Predict the structure.
Amino acid sequence: MLAHGISGVKSHPRVETPALLSLYQAGRLNLDELITTKYRFDDINQRCQDMKEAKNIRGMVIYTDADR
């Protein structure tokens, strides 16, 4: 499968995603610093509001088993 990103660059998600995950797990790709705020699933509306108000552009919603 070939995907086109926003910039028009072709990528191979089935190959690249596992590779990126391996780099992250090995500590060679620090994605954690890209997250500006973490939200619980119950706070998803606050995350949307923060985005609208430009308070947060890289928020992450954390899902747990309790959210199922």
